[in-house]
Design brief:
Helices cover 38% and strands 14% of the residues. The chain is α/β, with parallel strands linked by helices and 401 residues long. Bound molecules: pyridoxal-5'-phosphate. Pyridoxal-5'-phosphate (PLP) binds next to helix 5.
């Protein structure tokens, strides 16, 4: 069943038909083990090599062997951070930002709990970093592992990775970037940028869920966490997920071919939706640096309404979007990203992320614009504070304070 309107492409994307087509023979015909000595199995290895080249090309890696296939973006992030820290030895200083995805914050907090020195970079109200703070924190020099996302999954804000990488490298640290939301959406080339490690995820770029990759610049030391066989040059053991790796390669090839077209298409739709909502829904505000963000993403906050309530009403009419906040075990937690950006308290809970993709249409925008003013007006009527300016119907006043 396909949803009527899908604007949640930062959560996941539809598998491209070309990708499915490329993968199918590896379920039905070429199902051998690429490590086998016989031709039936060993012959499959060349398709993994092709996929490695396709991934390398998307991110401008100098050599395909700098690409390690993983199971997802989260694995790539974990492998990069924990692997680099392990390889460095001693007790490196771990640096990240307050607005990272849980896939980066999780391993960083794990290391903090283990006694590693851990620091986070702040963002301003636009969601931008302060390069002076990067410089100050990275002074700890060659015993630093820093992880800074390229583009934020909630707001789309893009961090200046070339400048940040230069500062970290000047001070001799190891630099990882989570490019899960950036790769495939805008051009990037690790050849020209001082990045040691870079994560990507298949299902954000029209490959299936369950495959990702980590770029490891030649010479960068990363201790493997899945040990055993010699696959991926000993960096990640386990028989390769051949169909999915082939699918990821194909998705990278397609992304490279249609990146400019997709970005223009998505930007046009995003901007029209944003302008339409701001014009028809009072008390709406876009979060994040409007100039410096992904072309497909907008994060809009609505004063005095709950994002989850908006989502449910959108879902009722077949529209799939996402909140800027995570809903954990029945209690509403405001988004750590929006909190870090000091989004006003009255808006913190009322955020919706719309993220467009290659298959989004003008009709999708029309459909959302038709529903949003009614939904917001209805929820404001229901809210005890909907017409006031001094309160909020927030359910977790403590964490909002
Ligand atoms: N990093 C970012 C910025 C993400 O948006 C996501 C997924 O939403 C991940 C990492 C995790 O990727 P995966 O779902 O492939 O584990």
């Amino acid at each position: 069943m396909n949803p009527l309107i899908y604007v949640d492409n930062n959560a996941t994307t539809a598998v491209a038909p070309e990708v499915t087509e490329a993968m199918m023979p590896f379920f039905t015909e070429y199902w051998g083990n690429p490590s086998s000595m016989h031709t039936f199995g060993g012959g499959v290895k060349k398709y993994i090599d092709t996929a490695r080249e396709q991934v390398a090309e998307l991110i401008g890696a100098e050599h395909p062997h700098e690409i390690v296939f993983t199971s997802c973006g989260s694995e790539s992030d974990n492998m990069a951070i924990r692997g680099a820290v392990d390889a460095m030895g001693g007790h490196p200083h771990v640096i990240t930002t307050r607005v990272e995805h849980a896939a980066v914050l999780g391993p960083c907090h794990y290391l903090e709990d283990k006694g590693f020195r851990f620091s986070t970079l702040d963002v301003n109200e636009q969601g931008n970093l302060d390069l002076e703070q990067v410089r100050e924190l990275s002074m700890s020099g060659k015993h630093t592992v820093a992880s800074v996302m390229w583009a934020n999954n909630e707001t789309g804000v893009i961090f200046p990775i070339p400048e940040i990488g230069a500062i970290i490298k000047e001070n001799g640290g190891v630099f990882h970037t989570d490019a899960v939301q950036m790769a495939g959406k805008l051009p990037l080339s690790v050849k020209d940028i001082p990045v040691d490690l870079l994560s990507i995820s298949g299902h954000k770029i029209h490959a299936p869920k369950g495959v990702g990759a980590l770029y490891i610049r030649r010479g960068t030391k990363v201790t493997p966490h899945i040990m055993g066989g010699h696959q991926e040059r000993g960096r990640r053991a386990g028989t390769e997920n051949v169909p999915y790796i082939v699918g990821l390669g194909k998705a990278c090839e397609l992304a490279l071919q249609s990146m400019a077209k997709d970005a223009n298409h998505e930007r046009k739709l995003r901007d029209r939706l944003e302008q339409g909502i701001l014009a028809t829904c009072p008390g709406a505000r876009v979060s994040g640096d409007l100039k410096n963000r992904l072309p497909n993403t907008t994060n809009i906050s609505f004063e005095y309404v709950e994002g989850e309530a908006i989502l449910l009403m959108l879902d009722d009419v077949g529209i799939c979007a996402s909140t800027g906040s995570a809903c954990a075990s029945g209690s509403l937690e405001p988004s750590h990203v929006l909190r870090a950006m000091d989004v006003p308290r009255t808006m913190l809970h009322g955020s919706i992320r719309f993220s467009f993709g290659r298959y989004s249409t003008e009709k999708d925008v029309d459909g959302i614009l038709e529903q949003m003013p009614r939904i917001i007006a209805r929820l404001r009527e229901m809210s005890p504070f909907g017409h006031e300016s001094g309160g909020t119907n927030c359910h977790c006043a403590d964490s909002c304070a």
